Amino acid sequence: QFNHLEDLLNYLISASNMEQAFLFDIQTKISIATDSSPTDMQMYELCCDMIDLLINMSEIYGRSNDNVVQTTEDDGIINDEQSDDNPDDEDDENEGHIVNGIHESTNSYSNYSFSTTPMVTSFASMTETITEPTSNVFDSMSSSVIKLTGGRALYLKEINRHLALICVLREEALTKQAIIEYNVNQLKKSILELFHLTPQTSSSSVAS
């Protein structure tokens, strides 16, 4: 699963002109996956600070818990077939194939071999991020861009209420933010499908 996540992140950064991408557990602020490029620890720490900043800002200026947008279109993939009866999924339904090949990576990543040193050594830790409670300020609309000195920027997009994608990119790459958001949404669906399919695969292998 870690190799698959790494491959998906590799496709994302190559298609969207990014430098690095991290998949974070929001509650613990631990990266559970990253691309194959060497990790810049300074950027890693800035990503953790970005999560704290977004949570703090959302708690002050965001909507109350009673009005938080429910991410049924995201958690529905994990909880089985929510997309058919969710009227708010027009954007997802209109998204076809990924720009520059991100979507195809979900079917072809097994053909690629990337070395990886996962920061989390058990897939059980990954699935815990799906079930454990976390801050209610993250929802399907959560995203943020922070511009740094030196011409870099951090781009955050929620995957579901428990996971967030943070990308490091050059500021000029933001001129094509529509392509970035499209590619990130395709990556988001692929990650949720991976979390959905893996428990089924594990249970079927045990039964056999």
UniProtKB/TrEMBL annotation:
Transmembrane ranges?
A: none
Instruction: Report the Pfam families cross-referenced here.
Output: Gtr1_RagA
Where is composition skewed (Acidic residues) in this entry?
Answer: 74-94
Segments of this protein annotated with the region Disordered: 74-97
Q: Say yes or no: keyword GTP-binding present.
A: yes
- GO molecular function terms attached to this record: GTP binding; GTPase activity
Q: Name one GO biological process term.
A: negative regulation of autophagy
Alphabetically sorted, this entry's keywords are: GTP-binding, Nucleotide-binding
Any one GO cellular component localisation term in the record: Gtr1-Gtr2 GTPase complex
State the superkingdom: Eukaryota
Which family does this protein fall into? Answer: Belongs to the GTR/RAG GTP-binding protein family.
Please report the name of this protein according to its UniProt entry: Uncharacterized protein
Organism, as annotated: Rotaria sordida
